[in-house]
């Protein structure tokens, strides 16, 4: 991750935590929504026991360590939360200031760049020493209908599947238990995602979680039958038009940890 990085690609609103120690992946596997035992990066979240979002993040592998790519303003709170769950495990959880999160709409020359694991249309992402701040990321992300961070996803108010986590590869329905798993799995099996977090033209709306007047956009939490003027990119329109039927729960749902 020491390869030279082009200028003006750093996402200044992101920061990294480094998790080191024995079985770091096993530690996270019992906490977050996605399967972290395979290829990384993945988008995932730490939830309340009721399945509501506290922190969303991307997880990267760096040899045996895990790097947590999350919003910079919430890094201290995320570090405290992970430390609380660590208990007596010999795992260190510290900031990683030597690296930054980078983004480019087009494929860069950096060999570590990968398509955003949520949606390839979001562009390319990689980790490297900091450069000048990138421009255009927020507008590009919102144009693709993708919400992230506490300002948009809330802090324990919105269910993870209502954040389009299934459609954006942010959850595994085949892994074992994690915090908030029971309610998340039940919603999936019963096809009960009645609300969605969507991007829409900015206007006064009590259901809005974030307003971006400079872009003329907002992020808003709406019932699926009243999405109205919401931005519906192909990935979301296809999911909504599929109208899935409830899935038989042949196996018992595992309780949340």
UniProtKB/TrEMBL annotation:
Superkingdom field: Bacteria
Q: Does the keyword Transferase apply?
A: no
Q: Does the keyword Transit peptide apply?
A: yes
State the UniProt keywords alphabetically: Transit peptide
Q: Name one GO biological process term.
A: iron-sulfur cluster assembly
**SUPFAM superfamilies cross-referenced by the UniProt entry:** Folate-binding domain
What is this protein called in UniProt? Folate-binding protein YgfZ
Lineage runs: Bacteria, Pseudomonadati, Pseudomonadota, Alphaproteobacteria, Sphingomonadales
């Amino acid at each position: 991750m020491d390869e030279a990085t082009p200028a003006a690609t750093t996402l200044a609103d992101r920061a990294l935590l480094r998790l080191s120690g024995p079985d770091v992946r096993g530690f996270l596997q019992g906490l977050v929504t996605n399967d972290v035992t395979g290829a990384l990066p993945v988008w995932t979240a730490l939830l309340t026991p009721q399945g509501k979002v506290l922190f969303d993040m991307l997880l990267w592998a760096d040899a045996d360590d895990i790097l947590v790519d999350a919003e910079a303003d919430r890094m201290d709170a995320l570090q405290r939360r992970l430390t609380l769950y660590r208990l007596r495990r010999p795992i260190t959880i510290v900031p990683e200031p030597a690296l930054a999160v980078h983004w480019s709409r087009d494929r860069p020359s950096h060999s570590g760049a990968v398509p955003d694991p949520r949606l390839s249309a979001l562009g390319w992402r990689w980790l490297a020493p900091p450069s000048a701040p990138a421009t255009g990321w927020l507008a590009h992300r919102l144009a693709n209908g993708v919400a992230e961070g506490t300002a948009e996803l809330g802090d324990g108010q919105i269910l993870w599947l209502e954040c389009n986590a299934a459609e954006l590869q942010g959850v595994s329905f085949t892994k074992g238990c994690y915090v908030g798993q029971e309610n998340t799995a039940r919603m999936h099996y019963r096809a009960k995602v009645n609300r969605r977090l969507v991007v829409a033209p900015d206007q006064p709306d009590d259901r809005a979680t974030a307003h971006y007047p400079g872009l003329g956009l907002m992020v808003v939490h709406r019932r699926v039958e009243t999405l109205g003027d919401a931005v519906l990119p192909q990935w979301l329109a296809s999911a909504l038009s599929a109208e899935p039927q409830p899935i038989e729960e042949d196996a018992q749902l595992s309780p949340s940890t």
